[in-house]
């Protein structure tokens, strides 16, 4: 930004220029303050979680309370299954709904859906959990991965819809006009021009949603660890593993998408 | 040829519309379940449930007021901290930082959104609480203790801890969405402002103005998360059914009381009361969302979205 040139052109440092500097300095400060606690949390996670991290942590089943050692193989597989099921349910529905709202969303129905999606984003996970209990667990006669997956999918849905709509709207109108002018039907324009153009954004948004949902399964890693030392050690390690898993998946996903999008 | 094209378009549109309709069905089912589950409590306590501070499982007297208060206050405080900082750093990342730095930092911040909420809770309990108890809260009591907000005893856990943890949790949402929205506003807006003699900050102000609906959307998402956050808050808020003016005292939110007691609830009325709290929480989110929508409509002068302008 041409800050020095601008100030010189004004001929004197007036109040607006000083105010401008203050505002920009405040933005620097805000950036630093936001990063600091997040960095602290990651640091604590590594410092307290790494020591107990080993291969057996991934491959072994938990030992009974009081016995040393043991792993979290069951909880890790459980998390993967739940998140996978939730994603399978939420991503097609969420992206479909988001694209609908962005491309066709003008009528009363769309306003209703938009409001409902906003509403859903405010529904606490615990309320969704209670509802999933009543809707899936009770009719099916017991707890199941399916019930958890449905609940997780519901949690992911609003984020995916909202962001997909936002991202699809950002695709320049000229793309659509160019494709339509070439004689492509409306659905082909959406499916083969608009969605690919918005793909990077859609994947990023979905990734955030999936990550948030994966976090909801974290308590799985914390159950049955009552003895304080054991709990503390394994809890930090479990949290570290979950964070590594989710960030690893999302980092790879994002970088791949970026490469594809640039092609 | 023309007929076939119309049919394909119609099918495509119907398929996407079906996905959109499913969202409505999901919410309707949740409302239905919550309403059905809380029927017993509604019939027993009526409207008094919302204004009563009683919470006695033994004599089966339940009231939700302390938890409504706790939820509203903790979320408001969290936004008070997170919104200025989040928008400030979004501006830094989108407008001021070198493109590469902005991209890397926001990538990391988005990855940090993946930290499970219970980790924030563990951190708040084992790291933040001792720090508040030994350093921050004694200082607050000594120096600004004359304000009722900072009167009391340094517990470490309580409303202040919950608000700080919540603000840390929602800030990545605000930062990453606000940055995306800012980057999507036309570059020409800033160039035009600068050409007219605006200072850099004023040019950013013009961009912020164009990005306002999107940023408001980010804040609404953050508020939704703060209102319903369960695990982290449960660990750091102290869970008591007293209403206290002081931010240093323990409190409880609607989500935290459900998480804390749902598995212990034994009698049908107890369970029903907890589900009614969930229903009330749901109703509050509807009110907040409605207010936020009116706000967005008003702030944008009736325009639907910033993206529609671009």
Description:
Chain A: GO terms for molecular function: phosphate transmembrane transporter activity. Chain A: It is found in: Cell membrane. Chain A: Keywords: Cell membrane, Membrane, Phosphate transport, Transmembrane, Transmembrane helix, Transport. Chain A: It is a multi-pass membrane protein. Chain A: Pfam families: BPD_transp_1. Chain B: Its main location: membrane. The complex is a heterodimer of chains A (263) and B (310). Chain A is an all-alpha fold. Chain A has two domains: 3-50; 57-262, MetI-like (MetI-like fold, Orthogonal Bundle). Chain A is 81% helix and 0% strand. Chain A contains ten helices and no strands. Chain A has helices spanning 3-10, 15-49, 55-59, 73-104, 108-122, 125-140, 145-170, 173-181, 186-216, 228-262. In chain A, helix 7 (145-170) crosses helix 9 (186-216). Chain A is globular, with a radius of gyration of 24 Å. Mean pLDDT of chain A is 76; it is low at 223-227. By secondary structure, chain B is an all-alpha fold. Chain B has one domain (38-299): MetI-like (MetI-like fold, Orthogonal Bundle). Chain B contains 13 helices and two strands. Chain B has a two-stranded antiparallel ribbon. In chain B, strand 1 (55-56) and strand 2 (61-62) form a beta hairpin. The longest helix of chain B has 36 residues, at 2-37. Chain B is globular and about 70 Å long. The model of chain B is unreliable at 303-310 (pLDDT under 50). Classes of the chains: A mainly alpha (263), B mainly alpha (310).
What are the key terms here?
heterodimer; A: 263 residues; mainly alpha; MetI-like fold; 2 domains; B: 310 residues; 13 helices; Phosphate_transprt_permease (chain A)
């Amino acid at each position: 930004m041409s800050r020095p040139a601008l100030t010189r052109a004004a001929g004197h440092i007036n109040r607006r220029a000083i105010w401008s500097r203050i505002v920009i300095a405040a933005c620097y400060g805000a950036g630093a303050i936001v990063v600091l606690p997040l960095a602290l949390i990651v640091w604590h996670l590594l410092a307290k979680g790494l020591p107990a991290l080993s291969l057996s942590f991934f491959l072994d089943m938990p030992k009974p309370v009081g016995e040393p050692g043991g792993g979290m193989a069951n909880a890790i597989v459980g998390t993967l299954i739940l998140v996978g099921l939730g994603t399978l349910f939420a991503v097609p529905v969420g992206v479909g709904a988001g694209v609908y709202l962005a491309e066709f969303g003008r009528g009363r129905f769309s306003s209703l859906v938009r409001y409902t999606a906003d509403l859903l984003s405010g529904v606490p996970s615990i309320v969704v959990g209670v509802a999933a209990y009543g809707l899936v667990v009770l009719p099916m006669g017991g707890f199941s991965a399916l019930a958890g997956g449905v609940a997780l999918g519901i949690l992911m849905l609003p984020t995916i819809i909202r962001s997909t709509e936002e991202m699809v709207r950002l695709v320049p109108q000229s793309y659509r006009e160019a494709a339509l002018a070439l004689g492509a039907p409306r659905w082909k324009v959406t499916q083969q021009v608009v969605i690919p153009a918005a793909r990077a954004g859609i994947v990023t948004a979905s990734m955030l949603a999936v990550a948030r949902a994966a976090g909801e399964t974290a308590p799985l890693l914390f159950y049955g660890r009552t003895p304080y030392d054991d709990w503390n050690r394994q809890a930090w390690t479990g949290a570290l593993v979950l964070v590594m898993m989710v960030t690893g998946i999302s980092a790879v996903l994002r970088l791949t998408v970026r490469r594809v999008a640039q092609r | 040829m023309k007929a076939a094209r119309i049919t394909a378009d119609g099918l495509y549109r119907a398929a996407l519309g079906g996905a959109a309709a499913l969202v409505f069905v999901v919410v309707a089912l949740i409302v239905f379940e919550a309403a059905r589950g809380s029927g017993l409590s509604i019939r027993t306590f009526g409207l008094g449930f919302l204004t009563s501070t009683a919470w006695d499982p033994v004599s089966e007297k339940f009231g939700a007021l302390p938890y409504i208060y706790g939820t509203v206050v903790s979320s408001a405080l969290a936004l008070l901290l997170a919104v200025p900082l989040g928008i400030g750093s979004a501006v830094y990342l989108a407008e001021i930082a070198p493109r590469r730095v902005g991209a890397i930092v926001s990538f990391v911040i988005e990855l940090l959104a993946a930290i499970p909420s219970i980790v924030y809770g563990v951190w708040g309990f084992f790291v933040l609480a001792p720090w508040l108890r030994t350093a921050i809260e004694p200082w607050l009591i000594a120096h600004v203790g004359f304000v009722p907000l900072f009167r009391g005893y340094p517990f470490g856990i309580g409303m202040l801890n919950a608000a700080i943890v919540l603000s840390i949790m929602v800030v990545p949402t605000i930062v990453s969405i606000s940055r995306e929205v800012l980057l999507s506003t036309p570059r020409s807006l800033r160039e035009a402002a600068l050409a007219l003699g605006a200072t850099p900050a004023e040019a950013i102000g013009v961009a912020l103005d164009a990005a306002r609906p999107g940023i408001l959307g980010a804040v609404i998402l953050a508020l939704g998360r703060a209102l319903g956050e369960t695990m982290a808050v449960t660990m750091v808020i102290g869970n008591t059914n007293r209403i206290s003016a002081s931010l240093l005292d323990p409190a409880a939110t609607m989500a935290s009381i459900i998480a804390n007691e749902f598995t212990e609830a034994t009698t049908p009325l107890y369970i029903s009361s907890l589900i009614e709290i969930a229903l009330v929480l749901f109703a509050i989110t509807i009110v907040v969302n409605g207010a936020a929508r009116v706000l967005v409509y008003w702030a944008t002068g009736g325009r639907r979205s910033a993206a529609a302008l671009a």
